[in-house]
């Protein structure tokens, strides 16, 4: 039995088997087999629905200095901004009018947004839109902070682990950050009842088949409800500015693998995938993904939240972006829906 056949049968492989499977990523028969099974599982649990997430990038200040990130602390050429609570609520109102039923508040780890300010924003959003899910993506916090956000009404939390390999983590982050701390946060979030999202960049500097296998083993252990992956894309103000972008084809392959590993997972066709390939989001959906994340941030701030170069949709109105995405999804046989899109357990 090949590693691909075993994954389809068992939904889990050993690290060594994942390494062998990744080594077959360029084999057409293996790709086709995994993609067919991934689509079958996505259809079984979610049909042809594609869930939308209204992304609100509310601060590009960050205390961290991750080596790959365009809004890292030491990048002095970023025009920094913060949205007010009222501006965030305006984004939500517009999103709700357009049919969004999940909002994602994403930002750098900005000390200005204390627990008190964050809780105030969470409560305001949930009071205004009680039928919507609220996702936070604001980095590493204490268990107590996560508890306060959860009690205020936050439903989900995205915290990409970036790599589950200790040595590789050290290549991508300063010594003030650790993989152990990142994993602790993810398990804290699970313990508090969040729908939890992890994930990693495909093709990040130093990544190997072994480190990718570590990622897949970790996802099997964590059992997150959401997984975000996309190709690594360099930013010109980082130490990895001259590194090659991650492979779209390997990203698509891994989307299928993750759908089989976690059959009911919420799996985005990410903006990074759409940036790397003009048809990337459509191809992601056809590989097993079932989520897209249009941007609801104010147009004046879109280009300032630049994690990597050449990010798409920084100049599109939210309504225009939604119409475009709806057409893109329809072109490959899927439909955007006005639903919260909670994970199935």
Strand content: 5-15%
CATH topology: TIM Barrel
- Based on CA inertia axes, which overall geometry fits? globular
Give the second-level CATH assignment, the architecture.
Answer: Alpha-Beta Barrel
- Radius of gyration from the alpha-carbon trace, in angstroms: 19 Å
So, the CATH homologous superfamily? Aldolase class I
Calculate the terminal CA-CA distance, rounded to whole Å.
29 Å
Question: What's the count of strands?
Answer: 9
What profile does the largest beta sheet have? Answer: 6 strands, parallel
How much helix, percentage-wise, in residues? 40-55%
Number of helices: 14
Query: Could you state the order of secondary-structure elements as H and E?
Result: HHHEEHEHEHEHHEHEHHHEHHE
Key features of this structure:
345 residues, alpha/beta, TIM Barrel, 6-stranded parallel sheet, 3-stranded parallel sheet, 9 strands, 44% helix, globular
Explain what the structure shows.
- It is a single chain.
- With 345 residues, the protein is an alpha/beta fold.
- It has one domain (3-337): TIM Barrel.
- 44% of the residues lie in helices and 12% in strands.
- It is built from 14 helices and 9 strands.
- The strands form 2 sheets. Strands 2-3-4-5-6-7 form a 6-stranded parallel beta sheet. It has a 3-stranded parallel beta sheet with strand order 8-1-9, with helices on one face.
- The longest helix is centred in the first third of the chain and has 19 residues, at 28-46.
